[in-house]
């Protein structure tokens, strides 16, 4: 089941996220996030943007959300999105199902551009984004340093052609 996040999901979200913090380069955070901090992040995002949970048999298997791309007003039609899955919930299409639901929600809003930053290498994330229509827009070399290695970041973008116009903007 895909549903909107609740504050009570923070412990399960922390379990998923902190695994990635402590074991992978997919997030540049280097210290585990507390439940209280995650609840605050959820609160700040859901006021304006979607945050979805994939749950099966009462267990949170993954989450995806969108947030503001940058604070300057001209960026108001662009968002950044992200997805994290439990380690044992990858590779079976669940992430694609969750991300598809997030993108459908975003398309219902007056948005034009969805961006995704991907720490590289990450062939699974690149494949997921490209399967959903994202195209590579940038490659930044050695912009992160974690686990004693330099890490590149790529940016993929998905343009909702005429979406903002369809919602009555730019008229």
Topology record:
Elements: E1 2-4, H1 10-23, H2 35-46, E2 51-56, E3 59-68, E4 78-85, H3 94-107, E5 113-120, H4 123-131, E6 135-146, E7 149-159, H5 163-166
Helix pairs in contact: 1-2
Give structural attributes.
5 helices; about 170 residues; single chain; Aminopeptidase; alpha+beta; seven-stranded mixed sheet
Descriptive notes:
With 171 residues, the chain is α+β, with helices and mostly antiparallel strands. It has one domain: Aminopeptidase (3-Layer(aba) Sandwich), CATH 3.40.630. The protein has 5 helices and 7 strands, in the order βααβββαβαββα. The chain has helices at 10-23, 35-46, 94-107, 123-131, 163-166; strands at residues 2-4, 51-56, 59-68, 78-85, 113-120, 135-146, 149-159. Helix 1 (10-23) crosses helix 2 (35-46). The longest helix is centred in the N-terminal third of the chain and has 14 residues, at 10-23. The model has no long low-confidence stretch (mean pLDDT 94).
């Amino acid at each position: 089941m895909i549903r909107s996040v609740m504050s009570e999901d923070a412990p399960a979200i922390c379990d998923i996220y902190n695994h990635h913090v402590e074991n992978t380069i997919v997030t540049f955070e280097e210290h585990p996030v507390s439940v209280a901090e995650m609840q605050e992040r959820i609160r700040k995002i859901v006021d304006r943007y979607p945050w979805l949970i994939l749950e099966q048999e009462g267990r949170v298997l993954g989450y995806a959300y969108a947030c503001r791309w940058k604070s300057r007003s001209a960026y108001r039609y662009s968002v950044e999105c992200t997805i994290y899955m439990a380690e044992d919930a990858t590779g079976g299409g669940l992430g694609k199902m969750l991300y598809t639901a997030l993108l459908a929600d975003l398309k219902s809003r007056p948005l034009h551009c969805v961006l995704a930053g991907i720490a590289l290498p990450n062939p699974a994330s690149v494949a997921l984004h490209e399967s959903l229509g994202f195209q590579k827009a940038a490659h930044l070399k050695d912009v992160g340093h974690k686990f004693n290695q330099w890490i590149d970041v790529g940016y993929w973008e998905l343009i909702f052609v005429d979406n903002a116009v369809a919602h009555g903007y730019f008229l």
